[in-house]
Amino acid sequence: MTFLIAAAGTGGHVFPGLAVGEALTTRGVSPEDVLFVGGDRLEATVYPEAGFPFLGLELRGLQRSLSMRNLSLPRMVWRARDLIAGRMVEREIEVALGMGGYVTVPTALAARRTRVPLLIAEQNATAGLANRVASRWAVRSFTSFPDTSGLENGEWVGNPVRQALAGFDRKSLRPEALIGYDLEPDLPVLGVFGGSLGAGSINAIVVRLVETWQGEPIQVLHLTGDADLAARPTTRARVWRRKPFEERMELFYAACDLVVARAGGGVAELTVTGTPSILVPGRFGSTGHQESNAAFLEEAGAAVVLPQDRIEALPGLVEEILSSPERLEAMRAGALEIAKPEAAITIADAMLETAR
């Protein structure tokens, strides 16, 4: 059996797609029989490095503001559709999966043209434009939240995470994580990340936090994205460790007692690892989806939502939460209560069932 997975753009699409591909291989599918489709961003290196064939296309998303660049989009979509359809026929693809984002629409059109069954998976609590369009041709739609808006008949299975996170065990991983990051075992750790591309406003307030910290000693583990934060010789926080990117995110979560993050599809990682969080929803995307994602975690008691226009309140909120072990434990329990660690396996099994 051969499969196609369309997932491109940011880590919020790419890594859930990769998780499903890897789940297919655990079910006996050869990596050579799982074709990934995307553009020239993160996906162009992630999938080949993981051992999967990759079809790279000239693609970009719709510009939300008025832009002459949008005039070339229809031609680009039709060309991508034709290339994908040709590869579907050549490789005898039996099922296609769209993970949302700009590559999903030409994939859906190609699946319709070649009569290949299409499944879609939505990472956010409010479905993106691509999945709303593609859902009209999908035989099944999967959602990461129980009440995802914009998708009719969506099945709540959770957002796929890679096996290292699906089988997460904080207790066994934490010693390795603390040693690897050179952190002290007896001080709380604040983790910070803004997604695979980083987040400038979060980075900026965290720089201020570590420089002016007035509370009990803490350690900060900061995934900065591609931002080049100038080395600062003095901080009032006990430790400030910085990395542009972490490939082994299970170690990051194992080290952290509280995480500050955006609220994209990566919130699934916070739930499956039982990590308390302060979520700062980004104001981008076609649907304001990050606010919806964050609200769901907050309602479950897993997170506190801090709007972007109140980000200056972050240091006080961090101090308040880290100083309360009872609150942290309640947030961990809330995160685990809504976690769906088997999402990748569930979707992979659905692809196999559809192929049969």
Could you explain the architecture of this structure?
Helices cover 41% and strands 15% of the residues. With 356 residues, the chain is an alpha/beta fold. It folds into two domains: 3-161 and 341-355, Glycogen Phosphorylase B (Rossmann fold, 3-Layer(aba) Sandwich), CATH 3.40.50; 168-337, 3-Layer(aba) Sandwich (Rossmann fold). A seven-stranded parallel β-sheet has the order 3-2-1-4-5-6-7, sandwiched between helices. A six-stranded parallel β-sheet has the order 10-9-8-11-12-13, with helices on both faces. The chain starts with a strand and ends with a helix.
Topology readout:
Elements: E1 3-6, H1 11-26, E2 34-38, H2 43-49, E3 54-56, H3 73-91, E4 95-98, H4 104-114, E5 118-122, H5 129-134, E6 140-143, E7 154-156, H6 163-166, H7 170-181, E8 189-193, H8 200-212, E9 219-223, E10 239-243, H9 249-255, E11 258-261, H10 267-272, E12 277-279, H11 289-299, E13 303-305, H12 314-322, H13 325-337, H14 343-355
Parallel strand pairs: 1-2, 1-4, 2-3, 4-5, 5-6, 6-7, 8-9, 8-11, 9-10, 11-12, 12-13
Helix pairs in contact: 1-14, 3-4, 7-9
